[in-house]
Structure formats: structure tokens, C-alpha cells
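Recall the central idea of this unit: under ordinary conditions, the amino acid sequence of a chain determines the structure it adopts. In this exercise we apply that idea directly, starting from the sequence alone.
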Amino acid sequence: MAEQLTPAKAQRRRRSDADRSVQAILEAALDALAGDPDASMAEIARRAGVVRATIYAHFPTRDALLDAGIRPFVNLFHWDLPQPLQRTGGWPVRETAEAFVPYAEAVGERLGDRVKDWITHNEPFCTSWLGYGLGIHAPGHTSEREALAAAHHALLAHGWAVEALRRAAPGAEVGTVVDSWPAQPLGDSPEDAAAAWSLDGVRNRWFFDALLRGEYPSDVLERLASALPPVMDGDMATIATPLDFLGVNNYSRTLVQAGPNGEPVEARAPTGPLTDMGWEVYPAGLFEVLVRLHREYGVSSLYVTENGAAYADVVTHDGRVHDVERIAYLDGYLDAVEDALAAGVAVRGYFVWSLLDNFEWALGYAKRFGLVHVDYPTLRRTPKDSFYWYRDVIASTRRRALAA
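Accordingly, the structure predicted from this sequence is:
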């Protein structure tokens, strides 16, 4: 006779199963980390790759995704630098970029038989400037010189990783992800226009030009000459290694006005709705980025790798989360993607950030981006109205594609 489980007992059993699964993952990770505590940076990075691949291999979702016809995109770096590498200098030192190669090889060798699509870095602007220049994310440094060095080395690591992944996983499609928000002048003055162009140079063109043209923008090099890192022969060619695709993360735009000395100062939008992050809802910004990369840089394969909105979601008395603002947000941005497609931009896919409410870096668990609400004390998951709406959008899009 089958055991009859109460809801509470079933939940305890699920937690016990999850605990055993996590224990197996941790044991495998510890096995991978075992070795000389005085290992080189390259060996530490290689072990990190083994750990990441081992953890991924232990999760049943890997094969479940493939069995369901869902293509996983593996992202090698989303701001999670091993602490031993940070202690030896982090991204501002060239050795961190060099250590990224054995890490990429280790992951590629272990997952290349199952994974076709690879992302080397997520948002190198955030890695470099938010981490080392503006003190917003870890490690919280505020050095222009460190930020520029980190930006160069993150891009250099990307270029080396592209080559490493192609060696380790033949047939892989490899790209990287930039977080691009259009920088637009607040007013009509020449000073505001110049300030917006200056910010665009650091936020967007530094990464666009390096990845897609093999050079850094001349105006940024001139303006920041005293803080630039050494660029060795061959660096820019490595950074500009041809990509199979480019990913774009976009949530809004940046409005810019000139400060007292002409420096760019970010300004709030005078009108319009804001998300819980304080970001303006501006779907046209996504369209502008996609079209810019297509027309100015000739990118022939683009993904929207992150787009979404945080709102102060609550589970209401009916047990549901009625996130009408998120549905409106996503609807507007999906329209922007359709407009880009109509303009001839080769957008191959779109990812919502994010499936689940999650840890949002320096903001912890305070901001909720998910299509699924997570009650953090109990880990209870409640699909929001946006979850069902987006499910229906996917289904209707698929039906239209099959009928075309």
C-alpha cells in the first residue's frame, strides 16, 4: 500500500532529498578542490572549472532541459571570481585573465558533449566599473585605474576563452554578453550631448569597439590616458576573436547631463514609470541598442540575454501574485524586439531575467525579478501571473512560427 503523505510530510521529504543532492554536490566539489593549497592561479582556476562542471553535472535539470528540447546556455563568468584570485589582485592584474583559460578548458571538456551554446563573460562593464571603479559591487574598490585594467583583462580573458572552448568543445557556438543602455542627453545643450557621448564611450563603445573592431575608442583613450593599462601586442586581435553571437542585456536607458566641469552626471527621467530598481521603463532603449549593433557594427547574430523588471511582489489572499506591471514591462520590450526584427536585425533569441526571484548581488534578496515568487524562509515557489502570461506568449509564438 502506498504511503499517504500529508502536505507537511511531503515537503519535509522533498527537503531531505534536496539536502542529499546538495551533499553529493558538495562532496564532489570538495574532491575537485583537493590538492596543493599553494597552487598557482592557473591551477586554482582549473579547479574552479572542475567544480562548476561537477556541480552542473550533478543537477538533474541538465538532462531534463535537453529532454524537453530546451537549449542551455552556459555562462562561464557572472561576477563569481574565486577569492584566492581576488587576493592576488583580481581582474586588474593580467594573471587573472591568463588563469581564465584553464578554467574555460576544464568546463568545456566536461560539458562540451551536452552543451552547444557558451557565454564567456556576463557584463564586463559591471565586473570592471561597478566592482573596481565605482565601489557598488564586490570587491568595492573606487579606482579608475583598476577599473580600466579590469575592463581590458576581462575582455582579454574572453578572447582567450573563445579559443579554449572551441578547442575543448568542437562545434560549440561561443559568444559574450554586454550590458548596454543607451546614453542620451537630458537636454538639448551641446554640453549635455558631449557628456552623453563621454559616458557612452566608457559604458558601451569601449566594449563594442574592442570586441567588434579590435580597438578602443580614441576619445576614451585620449580622455583617460593617464589611467590606461598596458596593452600588449596581440591583445586587441585576441579580444576581437570572431564570435558566433553577441548577447545584449538591457533594462533601460541612461539620461545624462553635464556637470560643473562638463563631466557626465546621470539624471532621472522627468516622467514615466519606474521599476522597483528605480530604472525608467523605456523599451525603445532595447530597440536602439539592437539596431545600433546591427547597423554600426555589422553584428549578424544577436540574443537578448537579459531583460526584465523588479517589482515589490506579494502573494495575495488568493495565493497568487498579480504582477501586472511586470507583464506590461515585458510586453513593451518584446514589442521592441519585434520592431528590431522588422528593421532587419538578426535577433535569434530572448531571455527573461529571471525565472526565479534570486540573490541580486549588493542588494541581496530585496529586489524581485522573477517570474516565480520565492518565499525565502520556506523556499515555497509561487508562479506569478507573468509566468502564465509568458508561457502563453511562448506557445503562441511557436504556433505562429510553425504555421509560417
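The two ends are 51 Å apart (CA to CA).
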